[in-house]
Structure prediction request, 408 residues.
Amino acid sequence: MRGVETTRGGCVRDGGRSRSRGNGRPVRATCSGRALAERSAEHARRGTGRQLAPSAAGAAGRPTAREEKNTARPRRAPRSTARSGRGIAARRRRGIVNSSYDVRTLVSALALAFGALALGAPAPAGAQAADPEQLTERVNQERPEEDETAWALSAGAVINTGNTRSWTANAGSNFRLVRGRHAFGAEWAFNYGRADLPDDGVDDYTDTARNSNLRLRYDLYLTRMDALFVALAHRWDTFAGLDTRLQGQVGYLRNFFREENHRAWGEVGYDITYDNFDPEAIQDPDTASDPMCDPAMGAPDDIADRPAICQADGSQIVHAARVYLGYENALNEHVRFLTGVEALLNLEEPEDLRINYDAALRSTIAGSLQVEIKFKLLYDNVPALQADGTEREKIDTTTTISLIYTLI
Prediction:
């Protein structure tokens, strides 16, 4: 028979296998209900969480199999009110600390994000990457121009026979190159005509039209709607008294609206014009009544033989403010309308106003072949002088019908 002894708390201990620790050897403890309650309270105060449940067999002094199992694997006893209160307070404190930590983390993340945006730095690794489709759409919207290479040639002619014998030919070229934000354009138009005048007494053809217009332009697009530009133009028109006219222009372009089928835009800037008049000597109208300049008073008939004060200056430089309005409309997939008006105001002599207007209607015949009807008007309020010192016509117009073939 095994040895039995009474332990502290009123439990009876005997030898045997148990997971409870005794005085150096394994023991089996059998406790009464009161003893079990006291031991449970003691474990609760110590924080071990153990709880012992009384049973009928335990009250009799002998444990059942279930009590042996409960003794071997004790359950965690409910914490006391005081300890539970302390636990709740601790959890609340931990919650406050965790909340403060979360707030600090959030503030740090926001500061890092704003700093990255301000410095243009890449987003942190934890940040969500943007959708590639959204990035592509944004780039396409901000792209000022689609890359383009275009080159077209034009030509036309008018021939009259019978009572009116004359012919006129016109030719032209239009080139445009766009790469990213940079655009370069070149336009050239040439007109030449001859006629047999019935009243000149000579059965021969003489020149009736002779002019050339060349324009080069470079645009730097700031956005899809804005651009800076510089342009150079040359005009040769001896019938208008211009042996050479050179123009340099700089300015700013703004698209008022720009859609797939049509757009309207405006330009403002500065223009400098150099005019070299007809190389023939011209009588200065301000000195025409001077005895040294008036043939009726003995002056030479040839203006070139008269004194220098009688001859008008053969060249001039004009500084002007420039304003331009343009409109383009694709009426349908085969027909396109273009028009524009330019005003040049002399900054030194405001009465010297020049206005240039043109309009063109193009229609596709087949493939790369188009037909164009174009009208051009040039107005100069102070035109070049004729040889006798009188003013030429203020308005010049040109109407052409041409075939255009697009090479590129």
Notes: The first helix runs from residue 33 to 46.
